[in-house]
Amino acid sequence: MAMVGINFQSGGSSPPIGSPGGTVLMDAKRLNLLKSNIRIGTWNVNSMFDLSKAHNVALEMTRLDIKIMGISDTRWIGSGQSTVQDKVIYFSGNNNSRHEYGVAVMIDETLKHTVKNFIPLSPRVMLLQLEAYCGTLNIIQVYAPTKDKPDEEVEEMYKDIQNILKVTKNQDVTIVMGDLNAKIGAGQNDEWVGRYGLGERNERGDRLYEFCQENSMVITNTLFQHHKRRLYTWTSPKHKPSCIIRNQIDFILIKQRYRNAVTNVKTYPGAGVPSDHRLLVAEVKVRLKRLKKSVQPPRIEPKLLRNIEIKGDVFQAINENLKKLKDTSHTHEINPNQIWKNIKTAILEPCKKYLQKPKQQKRKDWMTEGILKLMEERRQAKLTDLRKHIELKKQIRHECRKAKEEWLRGKCDEMEELERRHDTHNLHKKIKEFTGSNRKQPPSILTDENGNIVIDVAKQKQIWEEYVRELFEDQREENEYNSEDDETGPPILKEEVRCAIEAAKNGKAAGPDEISADVLKLIDEQHLDLITALFNSIYVTGRLPQEWLESTFVTIPKKPNAKSCGDYRTISLMSHTLKIFLKVIQRRIYRKLEENMADTQFGFRNGYSTRDALFAYNILIQRCLDVNQSVYVCFIDYNKAFDKVRHSLLINILKEEAIDTRDVQILKNLYFHQKAEIRVKSETSNDLEIKRGVRQGCVLSPLLFNIYSERIMAKALEEERGGIVINGTPVNNLRYADDTVLLAENIEDLQRMLNKVMEASEEYGLTLNTKKTKFMIITKRINPSEQLMARGENIEKVSAYNYLGTRVNSNSEYYPEIKIRIEKARSAFLKMRPILSSHDLSLDTRVRLLKCYVFPILLYGVEAWTLNKECEDRLQAFEMWAYRRILRISWTDRVTNVEVLRRMGKEVEIINEVKKRKLTYLGHIMRGPKYEILHLIIQGKIMGKRSVGRRRISWLRNLREWFNCSSNELFKVAINKIRLTLMIANLRNGDGTRRKVATYSHHSGKMFS
Predict the structure, then answer these.
(1) Does 611 fall in a domain?
(2) 20 to 30 A from 126, CA-CA: which of 150, 633, 795, 914?
(3) Please, what is the angle between helix 528-541 and helix 576-595, to 10°?
């Protein structure tokens, strides 16, 4: 790298970059590096959990003309991007709720268009890449473990830094900076360390020196001669005038070849952010440039249709265009591509005119100019008047609190107004904004097959293409989608089209054609004929418009710190008009396919949900234990089941189900001609053929997968007599889509069933994930030793398992699950605490938000709960905990629960809600003929013998005790909606006994007690 000699150390001329004494010529491009100085700083600010600290840092950046600021110990949760004043913050923190560690880089807003990549690797290491004329400026911000942490944590941090350095190029300007919690010491002068360090080197300093040697990096703040107060970066809490304890533990490192680009490095003790560390600033000769990005066409924003005037203009323009098209169109036109092209043009033209996404306005936060001025006064007073400095600190805290309260009051007024107008969409958006959960998420991290981080977009696209191509590869014969069957299937009616459009959801991302369901709903009745004609043209010919066969995959992480392609979920963006067309097809074939669905499948079916699957599993296990019947359970997990469906077998199944041939032909052409591209950042990959798997985001996919999996289970277990026998009927499986549970009375039956299911699944292209498939024995026997095998591999035996979002265990106890639900609800409450505890928001509104955002988390799966006294006490305690925090009552205030409820203007609610939901659910399943399997589980006879002594509390026993009824009386009440409603009404009034429950006489039509 060509460099001009720059004075450093004792003022002499530095040797040229490269070997000592070497000479390297400069070219014109690299001279750009020397044309502009940029100030880069790093600072451990001792937490930015209080956002006023972030504003303070931004203020100091502006005052000292620092363009890039690395920050250590932010204590922010998660990773992402945020804005403070005229600065942009890229941050990387913990993914849990613990406010510890965390790093960030704050840049001036003028540099945001130079940012190429942001990699939040861990709470201690992150990378920010900026485009420069010399190539790329890599800023690696770190926060090393303190001396009390084990060496393993230090090595883990250096390993993360090495992983990042692997993906940077040698010609890049790479800077590693931050609080390294190491002492490099004074007096050494070599290629990696200058003579102007401080103190004596320690073991962590030796490790830092090794790192510099291994990576040819120089510690820049040891190169320049300054007074010691401009060299030390940290002051010990034990420091005092009589015992000076200061050290140099924050450093800025740069590649050795670029050491001459650094013209000065020093600390600023007078910088005005409260911290025991000093701001360290380097002046670097580097010239940044605006990143060239592909020009994106203006995006259509359907949300603008909420404006009545804009909606009226779009409505009028679309229907005028469709009227012209209708008047000029040829009735004999049957080419779907041409018809769709004409309709699309007529709809898109007004959308592009009226629905262009407006320029985003800056959000105004609570910080005021007055507080910023006080911060500057505090900084100056720190140097001259210590007493005034302390007074200003108190005043700033007071003013910050006051400004936050005023800002909060304004936000609460906005939410009150939205709630009054029943604008739930914007209310939810405002709540997310308020709680900080709408921060811009960081770009995804992707690694190759060797675990190396990949940051080059072209390489990322290549990795995704290979992954998707392999995932959806299958052998298909050309003649598999050539149909010679007689055509059956009635023409599509306008009424069907209208119903499908009305059922479409608003606010969903549009596909490649940019037309969303929100816009299609503006087509008036008389012009629906055009859409109907298009659908019939497709239905008759079996040919779909080419654009409908194309979709875009968007990748979303399935878990925090997702790195490999398998850790991501691919969401498909497809044409909304296609979705509406397929909704028409779905309604035509649903009933035929539903008739052949087993009762044990609860997923993606009308009238069924996870609560039915949870109820079936929990009550079945409970009833077996009541009669000392052991249950052997296998929780099957498939490898990407939805992506492994074989198209040829799926089409054959549909033919065998007597689906109209035109419907089959449509699905055949849709699946055999589909293509997809993958969106990586702002770019897209090449088109790829999707040769297997049901379509992501398609309304038909759940139904098609259900019938596909039904064929697998029918083939595997149709003649199987193993399972839990109830009234002579074996129940050997419970399913929710691909979540399959096998049940047996002994290990031999379970092993046989698992073998059959594996064999049938593999025949249809599905394979078991043996690492995630688990095995559980639920029994009263002590330490059963049986083992389950899958293809010669042991299936892990567990005592607890996460099933459909709940924790089930081998003891069939509900207390552990209720504890988990309480903690999740508590976490949700704490995220919304600024709103729920705000006295600027009316109590009624806060209670409604509590019921909307917190209680549903607490009560998930409540219909299957069996409660004892301890569970009820825990639930009631959580409810009172929430009310006390809403009212801001401290535990030291000695306020009774009775007084808390009086102030809330309500009675204890959670337990009554549990009772109500369980009773309501009993009525729901007892009145529904489709719930035969649930009737069987709750009422059928299971062979076995009860143990001597007191019986365990059961699901029905809860209801019997709460309502003082026998089981038969409960079943009779459950099938009578009026009697059930009266029981619930009396429950709400605090009365659930038999003596006072209002019942209803069918014969007289009168109520009696």
Answers:
(1) yes
(2) 150
(3) 60
